[in-house]
Structure formats: structure tokens, C-alpha cells
What does this fold into?
Amino acid sequence: MSSSTIETRWMKFGKSHDFVFVGKEAIATASGIYVSFLDLNTRERRIERFDNKERGDGASCLAGHPTVSMFSVVERKHNPKISIYMYPMLQRISRCILPDKINGYLSCSFAGTEYLVSLTTFPDFQLIVWLWRTGKHVAMLNTKIDNLNQEIYCSPNPPHLISQLGIDNNTLSIYQVRTCSKIVSIHHVNALLPEHRIVSSSWTLEGNLFVSDEFGNVWLVAIEANKLYSVVKSKIREHPKNKPIVVTHKSGVIVVNPNSEITFYKKTSADWNVAWKFIWSISTFYSIQVGKQHYFKDGILLHSKNGEIFEICTQHDNIPHIEVIYADEIEYKALFSISQRTEHVATLDRLDRLCIFELLTGKLTARLSLKHHGEVLHVDSHPTLPMLVSCSATGNCILIDVIKVSLPKIFNCFHLYGNLLDKVKFSHHGELLGISNSQTGIMFIIGKRCKQQRVNVLGFIEINGYIADFLIYEKSYDRFEILILTTTIPSMASIGGNKVIVYTCKNSVEFCTHAVCIIDISRPFRALYHGCKPLDILGVPSLSKQLYKMEIENNFQDIVLTDALLSMHQLRNIGIYVTDSRIITYGYDGLIIVRDNMELRKVIAIFMPHHRTQGGVKSAISSPFGEMIVSLGRNGDVVANRIRLPETKTNLTETETMNMNLTIEDFTSDPNEHDQGKKSWLDNIIAAKLKAEHEEALPLRASILVDLEKIQTQICELLDINESESPDARLPISTFDLDREARQRRIEEARLEQNKLRQNLEEDCAQRDQMASNLREIFWEPLQVKPCALRSIGNDTIIQNYPLITSAQKMKGWDRLSSDTDEFLYSYDVYDRSIDEENDSKQESTVISNKESLTTKAENKTYQIAKRWHTLADDGEQLCISGITTHKWIKDESITSTHQLLTPCVSNLETILQKDVIIENRERKLKMHFNKLFEEMKRAKECVLKCAKERINRLQYCASELKTMFEINSILELIETPSWNVDEIPDYVITVKDHEVFEKSRQGELKIIDEDGEDENKGKKTSDFYKMALEKMMDGVLELKWEDEVKKEIPVPDCLIMKNPSKYTEEDIAIIKSYKSKMQMLQREQEKYKAILQADIVKTKDVLQRDIAAFNDKLKDLELKKIQIESAILQERLTRLRAIQRHRTMVDGKEKIARFTDEKLTPAMQEARRLIEKCNALEIIVSELKVRYDNLCKADKRQEAKFRGEFAEVKQSIVEHLFRHYKKRPKTSRLTTTSITYLTEVARCVINSEKSDILPHDCLDFLKGMDALDSMPRNLPPQINAEYWQIMCRLRRIKVEMEIKVTCCAVEMAEAEQTLSFYQKAMQSADNAVACKKISLDDKEKSLMQFVQEMEIQLVLKMGQIEVPLRGCPSDYANAVLVMCEELLRVNDCIVETGKRKLAAMHKSMHLQKVLSQYEWQYVCAKMTMEDLQRDLKDIQEFKITRNVLEFLTNSPCSVNLERDYEKMQVNLRIFRNKFRELLELEQACLKEAKLRVAKWKKKNDKISQEIKTKSSDVEKRRRLLDDPHRKRDEESRRIRLAAIARRTKLVMKAEANYEQLLILHAHLEVLKLRTYPTLQFKTA
It folds into this structure.
């Protein structure tokens, strides 16, 4: 293999991934083996590979540190390692490795600045806390959420809270990390969570959690207060497509609802119960998937499903602004090269958009949507032309022109098929195009016909099988070969084809195809590829990892394997891409292997652009010379790698000898050819073919019909001739059968079908008979008493007996399958289960066993009292208090032995079972007693039916005699002879008669056929025969009955018939007289017979009705007895059930106590003991920390003494001067961090004078300040030399290190005390829980003891009485009288009726009062009117007319012509009316105009009012903003800050001036001292 260097040039992430913040300026995203870093300021993207020993195998589960530019990454393999890196150097800080092997991790997150939390995958789903600085795990906890898709997030500030969200089942759990020195623990937080499905969560800075359900409802989970507050209530009720997202922002929350509306809510006050206020909202067309808060910039970053990353930030105007940061991440599903455009590559994204990228830089050049033609399923590029072709799910084939890569366009489209097309491929030289449907086995060929300038659909090939792949070879301008890789086995379609069908096609005027041969392949292939030579084929078998090179021989008659070599891939299903210089193989293992096309065994390069855990490589392409390889992963990522070879390029050129004259214009077609409407090309071809065949077959059809008519006419004539011949010469009809073979064939088929149906029916009948015999053997034959019913005559009453099994054959199967309560036996399953449970209950706790003695004593006391009462009572009282009425029906000595007062309250199961068997035998005796009564009644009904049958026959006989002799129609009701019903015959259920087989089922009751009637008819015939034979034998000697004599007619004398009455003789007269006397006597006898018949009918009717009524009354009495006996049986059964239930209740109570002790009390006590041990261990640690803190404080104080000891030989003034520098600390940056890791690292850096990459900026500033203090100032006294200064700096650094250690110990001690306080509270809560559970256990034991002490008594009360709970004192019931329920109901009804009558009388009285008042008022009104009229009459009568008045009235003109005056007045009135009408119309017009003006002004006023309201609301909002206390506080704080800054500046300047003056004075003082005390110098000789 040649040595080569692989360089990743660019990459496009596919599916949208989660991102994390790395420091302040970057976000990171991981996919496969790549991690992408995006700078938020410069928008520059940086891609790093993680595929070596140093960085690990793949990258996943990124987590960003909250304060420094640090991130963690997890490998994509079994038992992965977690690596911690610094950004941007990518320097590895540490590596976290578990000693035990695990399957992998699901999510990671930093908890504060100290710890890293990770969540493992199945089977344990453990939360692991790592100390990331050292890579050691310090705590582990198994979680209860078992989803394979989970996320964990940590709160940004202490305390360290962890939220675990299961994405699949939307469950949420919260945990907390507690630290005490080096001991770290994780415990579950029992927070109050909503009952809905949680889909999103976000931590606040205060340690609370916002959660949202799938409908967009948002809650705030207050962890410390353990409360749940509603923030937003959504109006969505249906399950949305997109999930809502919540993000914490500026002490509020941003909610992204399922409709992609982004809304910001903020709390108006510190009270959590106050409603959240709507601040702003913005809509977007992005489908948002992830949202996170950028704590450093106070902004929100959102990630959409289409790959856009955009930021939402609000300026001072509080208006949200959206800024797209990155928009080039979308899932890609296809990758292909572009011929003649080697500097570009094309892809197809998830939205069916054609994307063209620059090969070297990955820059997007153009984008074209193909979705309107249907979902794109496959794309292929032309081997020599810049053209692409795609096939879609709607059956379209699209040709795309890519001559201008910046402006691709669709220049041709074929609607070929009504179903999907999933495979498209050009021929070897690109002149033909094949499109196929793999499932249906149809393939279309597009190309140019002979002597045509444009392409068209040449035709199609349809095979019976699955098309895996195909290859097209051009032979000449009018002939080509097609090799179709197929299989006819449906189960083999998933692994490819094992046969190659070779078709020879002629491209002439008519498209002709011919299957030349079928070649069997030794192994199945999924795809075949063209090799470097024209007839070479490359492929990889589906179930192998070898690369096969095959060659077509014998003019496409055979395919020969020429070479086979290992592909060097680790997994099967390998793909191939072939160029003129290179062969590239790729597969699920993520590897790409580049080989030389001329020498397959020469491997040029092997590299892994995609990780195997994400599906590896889906497709890969190469540049013409193989230096650039672009691959598409199954996760949608596109990666471009460059191969650098040490040797120079060889002369590699593409051979295009056969396609030099081929252009894109050759693939255009006439638009009129595609104007087919909604039908596809195939549908049009089939329709045209059917139409042509129909038109071609019309003449043939007409001629066939004419011939058929002639044949029918001839046959009819021959049949007529045949019928006219003699029988001997006549031919059989079958001779004229023209289709004898077909008829015989149909007859044979019918016979075979008949035999098959007969066989099936016989088998079905045999199975039914077998089933019937089994049922009869299991359920019917063991019955000693068969189930039977007894109906009254008239079917008004139905009584059933009790079916009984023989005593020796009580089967469990019958007990389980019997559904009625008559035969329920409890001596099997119930008792066996009770025995098992009693055996299990022997293993109870000691708490219960200690109190069994008290229970037994209390029970013995109650039992003794009941037994004493039973002894003192007489026999009647004992039977009354027994609770059963069995003694009324049978006599049994066991009633006394099983008396309920003699039964102990607490009995063992064996005693209960023995008593149960005795009571069950009594139940059986009661049933047998009733069955005896039932049989007697059945025999009575048999006698009644027999008598009724005889009487009905007598009635019918009498009625027929009256009809025959006297022509009297006796009015008889339709009397139906009573017979036995179906359910009254026990064997009728299992007996099937022949006449019942084909009878249809009827609703209601089935009546059996009266076989006795048939026997009766036979009996009548037999009796008539005997009678005739007897008469013939006796020859008239038998004595006749009186009825027969009465029926005989007296012969009429001949004289009455033959003679005239005037010619009668004396003899004739005597004969006539005798005839008359006989007739009179016969008439009297007949009248007597008629009266007897009529009386007999009445009597028989009465007797029949009386017998039937008597039987029915007896049956009703038996029904009453059945009810009473059933009551006695149920009383016995209730006694059994009560005993079993009481025992079951006691056993369950003991088990509940034991279970409560084992499941709740014991774990609570163990938890309390564990917490006590934990608290004791933590107290020891806290005390050790306190001792350590005191020691460090003392050591810190000893540093000053050590400082002076180091300068013991130096003058005091110099020591003081150095001490002042010793006390100095960095002024600009103080060490404010509380992280133990950072403090420890700072202390190490201070003492060693080193730098650290893991420290935040404030710590680095502190170290820079220390370095600045170490530099010697210029104004130092000359006595302080560099050695003294270095010693002072070293001691100062030791002092600073000690101070940092003291601070670190103080922080550690504070955390330990806080943890200890938490566990102490938890211990107190656990103690309280244990105390509560012990109280609950005592209550359960007392309740069980009380239940055992109480004795239940069963009483049989009279009808109408009920049992009520006893209240008050028993002496209150001393004078109580029992009243029947019917009496109470009757009294209530009487009270109700009396109340109704009273109300009716009251209503009637009120109505009468109203009527009287009305009459009185009318009377007073009439009286007053009469008085007024009388007063007026009196005035008129007293008025006197004078003479002048009389003359005026006589001569007045008004009274002369009143009609004329009236007409004038009418005319004037009409004139005035018209004038005023005109005025009114004028005023109405003015009013209408005024209304229009008013409406217009009203609209203007409303508009102005609305504007005023808007302005007022804006003004009010501005005023509120001006009056906002936060704003005032902000302005005040700014003013104070500015004043403080100014004051600080002045003070600094003043301090610097004072310091300089001080130094000058100090130097002057030193000079004066030297003058006062001169320094003596040693003079050398």
C-alpha cells in the first residue's frame, strides 16, 4: 500500500445535533469522528477529527465548562473514555476511565467548576460524578429511567442539581450532588413535578427548573420550596408535530410553542403566585429543535431541524432581533459527481433540494428544489455530460442541466409510471437511460430512436421478479444489451439478486426486446458496476467481504469471475465507485479504501471519514484524478478529504471516444410528446395498445358471431330431424354436443369438488360427534340428577330442579366451568390457596407473634360468653339464633354441632374445612329434598296432562256430534292440548332427531313434535279396524249403544211417498200414525242426547279448567317452597363464605402487617441507620476540617515571624520596608473564586511561578498581578539588593499560598457543614418517617385485634325487616316496637295523599278569595258610577233655558247647512295635511343627511379615540418605564458608580501623590539618618 496523507478539507453536518457552549465565544457540535467549533464573533468554523489514539475513537456527548474554554468529549465505542480538552489549543487536561467496562454514555454535563456528571447507557443507566481535574469518579447512582435516549443538565450555580429527562417516555428526575471534603454523594430530590409528559426543561440561576409538556404548558419547579407554579397555560389540545421548548432568560422564560412562536414571559413581582407577564413575542418559520441560553452574552441560541443556528437578542428598546449565525446543516441523502464540472460536487438534501458545492472549499454554489415532482428516490449523473437524472416516488424521471453550476435547471421530464421508480442508471457510454421499479420488476428505457434527433421513451421491460440492479451496453446505433440482476425468491430480495437476465434490444421503429439467456451467479449481489474495460463488471457479494472482478464473454452469453480479492472492510454490504483511474470501496464500517483501477490489489489509501456506530459511509465519489474524495455518511454528513501522494501524478485522461458527439440537446424532447394529462406514459401505451387490438378484432368478432349463428341454426334443424325419427333410429342428445371434452372436464371437476366437499363434511361431522361425546362424558354422564324444568300449563311459572353430581365424582373441572351458583364447591382451589397462604403466613414478623397471645385471650373470653348463652337457651331459641332455616325442611343432627355460637372466633383452616364439608352435605340434602318434591309434581303433571288430553278429546267428540246431528256450531275456544316443553325433557338437550337436523332455529321456546299424536292416529286406525272386524264376526248380535240408537233414522213409509193422502187405507193410516209416534219419540231422545252433549261440554270444560288451575296452584306453592329452600341453601352457603372470608381477612391482615413491616418499616429503619452512619462519618470529616483550618490559620500567622527571621541581620528599617512590600497583594484583580480546584491550581502556580491553561480570567489576572509585584520598583532604597528582594518575593508567595490554602479550607469546610446539615435534616425526616410507620403498624395491629375480638352473628329476619347499625345505648330499644315495612309505606302514602288534598283545598280557597275580591271591586265601581250619573241627571233636570237662548238656538245658521261646512273643513284639512307632509319629507331628508354626517364623524372620532388610547397606553408604558423602580435603581446605581469611580480616581491620584511624597520624605529621612549616624567603612591596606 502506498503511503499517503489524508487531509479533511471541509465538512457538512447532516442531521441537526445538539450544541454546547465552549467558553464565551464558541459553540461546539459533534458528529461521528468530527467536532465542529463555530466562533460566534467571526462566524468562522473549525473542524477537528477525533480518530486517533491521542484523541480517541469518535466524538459524542459534548459538554462545555461553565467558566473556562473547556469541553469534554466521549468516544464512540465499547467502554469509552471521557477526555477533557482546552479550547482552542485542544490540549488534553485529563481522561476519565472507569475500571469496570460499560456499554457507553448517553449524556454529559459539568456540575459547577469541580465536577463532570455522566449518564451511562443500558443496563444500569448510572449517574457518575467525576473529578475532572484528576479523572477519578467520586460517586455513582443507578437511575430508574431506562430510555436509550436521555439528556442530563446541571444547574449553573450551586447547589449542584441535575435534571434527567427521558426523551422516549418523557419522564423527569432530579438529583443533587453533595460534597463533604473528598466525599461526594448523589441523592434523588423528591420534587413536585406535573403529571403531564415532560418534553423540555431549563435551569434558572436560582436553582429552579422550568418544565414544559407536549402541549406547551409551562411550570416552574421550586426545588427548595418543593412547590409547583404554573407559568403558561396552552390552548393546544391535540398532539402537535413539534415539541415545545423552554429556555431561561433574564429572570424570565422564553417559550417556543409547537407553532414555532417564540414568546418571552417575566414575573412581575417576587411572589411566585403572581401571574407571569407577557413581554414580547415573535413568529418564525423555523422548526426549532434545541434552545439554550448564552450566559456570557445574555442571549438565546436556537437550533432548527433544517440546520440553522440563530440568535435572539434584545437591545435597549426591548424588541427581539433574530440573527442567523450558521445555516448550512441539513441531512443529505444522496451524493453524486458532475461530469465536465470536476471542481463541483452535487448532493440531495432531506427536503429534496439539489445542492451544488465547490469541491475544494465546500461553498454552496446553487440550490434547486425537486420536491414538486415528488419525493426523489435515486439520482445518477451522466458519465460524460454535465447532466443529472432523478426518479421520484410519483413515477417521474427528471433531467437536469448543470452546464451552469450556478444556475441548474430542469430541461426535460418524463411521467413514466403510476407507481414509484427507485432505480436510475445511464448506459456505459451515456447514450441510453434505464429507470426501474425494483418491487414490480418493470424497467423503462429512454433514448433516441433511429433517425431521430431527440430522445423519447423507447419502451419497457417487465420481468417476473425483483430487480436488484441493471447494466446497459451499447453495441451499435440500433442495438444494445441490458443485463438485469434479479431474483424470483421474495425472501432473497433483501440481499440482492442471484440471476442475470440478458436482453437484446433493437432500437428500430418498433422497440423489440428478446431475452437471450439467464445466467446464474454463485453468490447474490446487491449492485453491479462497470469496470475499467468495456466488458468488465465489478461487484461485492451481499454475504461476503470480497471484491469480485467479472468479465462478459461469448457475446453476452456468460459472465466469468476473473479476480477475487479481500476488500479489507470489516463489515458486509460494501459499495463501489469507479473512475478511470481509481476504484473506491466504502461500507458500514466507515472505511474508504482507494485502489488503482488498473491494478486492483494496489491499495492507495485507507481512511475513515465516518464512524461505524452511525452507519458508516452511504456513498462516496472521487475527482477524476482521485486526489479529492467526498463521502456521504448514513447520518447525513458530507465530508471532503484530500489524498496527498508522495509520487507525482501520472498521465490520467478520461476516454470519451464514443461520446464526443453527444450533447445535452440530444436529451431534449418535443413538448407535445409529454402532453399526456394526468396519465403516465405506460398508461397511455397500454390504452393505445388496447384500442388498436380492439379495432383490429372488430371484423374478426363480427365474422365469429355470424359463424356461430349459422352453427346454432344447423343444430336446431338437426335436432328437429332427430326428434321426428323413430325411437330406434333417434340419436342421443349428447351426439350433438360440440364441446364434449370441455363438458366432460367440467363434470369431472364438479365430481372432484363434490367428493372433496363430502370428505370435508364427513370430517366435520366426525369432529362434532367426538366433541359431543366428550362433552357428554365429562358433563352429562356424571350427573346423578339431570337438569330439568317444570312449567305450569300456560307457561306462567317455571321451576327448575337442582342438578346433582354423584358424591364420588365431584370434579374440579365441573367446579371451575359451572357458571351458576347451584353447584359452587369451595373445597378445592379456595382451600388449597388458603392452605398455601396460611403456610406462608407462618413466616411473620416477631411483632405480630408477640401479640397473638392477647388475641387468643380476648377470643376465648368472647367464645365462653357465647357458649354460656347457648347452654342457657332452649331448643327453639337455639334454632332461631342458628342463622339458618334448614331445620324446617330436613332433620339433621349436624345443625347443633355447627352452631355459630359454638364456633370459635379464631379457628384453624382444618376446622373450617371440616365444618364446610358438613354444611355442604346439608346443602345437598336440601337440594335432594326439593328434587323429591319436584319429581312428585312432575308425576302430578303427567296425570293432569293425561286427563286433560282425554277431556279435550271428549269435548271435540261432543262438538262434532252436535255439528253432525243437530248442525249446532258449538263455540269452543281454540284449545291446545298441553304437552311437555323442551326444557322439561332432560335428554332433549343431548338427543338430536332426524327431523331436527335441517330445521331452522326459532326465537323463543321450542315446541317438540307431538309424537303421541302420531301414536294416537295409529291407535284410531287400529281401533276402527278392530271394531269393523268385531261387527263382521258377531254378525249383528252385539248390543247397540243408546247413542247409536239415537243416531239411527226411522225409515219413511212407502205410502207417504207413493200414495195420495186421499187414497190412504186404514193400514196406511196406522203405519203413518206409528211412524209419527216413532218420530216424536226419536226427537225426544235426540233432544235429550243434545242436552246431554251440551251439559257434558260445560261440565268437561269446568273440570278441565279446575284441574289445570289446581295443578298451577300446586306448582306455585312448589315455587314458593323452592324460594324458601333456596333461601335455606344460601343461608348455609353464607355461613361457609363468612367463615372462609373471616379466616381470609385475618390471614390478609397478618400478611399486610408483615408486608408493611418488610417493605416499609424495615427499609425506613435501614435508611435511618444509614443516614445516622453517614452523619457520624461526616461529623468526623467536619471536625477534621476544622482542625485543619485552625492549623492553617496558625501556620499563616507564623509566616510573619518567619519573614522577620529571614532578615535577622538586616536593619530594622530595611526589614520594615520589605515587610510593607511583603504585605502587598494584586490590587486590580482579587481572588474571588470559590472553586477548590481553581484555588488549588492558583496556589500551585503562585508557589512555582507557573501558568495554567485551566484557570479562569480572574485567576489568571491574579497571577499576572503577582508577577507584577515580583518586579523590583525603581524607587527602592539602595540597601535593598536583588537577593533581599527575591527572598521577600519567595516569602510573599509562600504567604499568598498559605492564604489561598486557608481560603480553600474555609470553602471546603463550608461545603462540608452544609452537606452535614442536609444529612442531619434528612436523618430527622427519616426518624419521623420511622415513627409514623411504627404508629401505623400499631394501628393495623389494633384493628386486627379488634376484628378478632368481634363475633359476627347471622340472623334470619322476617320479611320486611332490615338490619340497621345499633346506635346509642341498648336501653333505648327497651320499649321499641317492630313495624312492618309495608305499614310504614302505607302510612307514608296516606300522609302524602292527605298533604295533596290539603294543598288542593288551600289553592281552591285562595282562588275563591281572589274571585270575591274582584266582585267586591266591581260592585264598588258600579255603585260610584251610578252615583255620578244620578248627580249629572239631577243637574240637567234643574237647568233652565231662557228665552234668548231659545231664540238663538232657533235662528242659528250653524244648524242650517252643517254638511257644507263639514266639506269645507275637510278640504282645508287636506290642504294643511299635504303642506305639512312636504315639510315632513324635507325635514326627513335633512335628518338623513345629518345622520350620515354624524356616522362619518363618529368613525373619525372612533379612529381618533383608538389612536388616543394607543398613545395613552404607550405614554402609560413609558411612564411606567420611567417610574419603574428597577430603572430608578439602575440610574441611581449608575450615578453612584460614576461618582464612586470619580472619587476613586481622585483618591488614587491623591494616594499616588502621597506615596511619591512619602517616598521622597523617606529617602530624605534616610539621608538625614546617614548624616546623623555616618556609616563606617573598613579600609583595606
Notes: Residues 119 and 127 are 5 Å apart (CA to CA). The first strand starts at residue 5 and ends at 12. Confidence is low (pLDDT under 50) at residues 648-660, 810-855, 999-1013, 1573-1581. DSSP finds 21 helices and 62 strands in the chain.
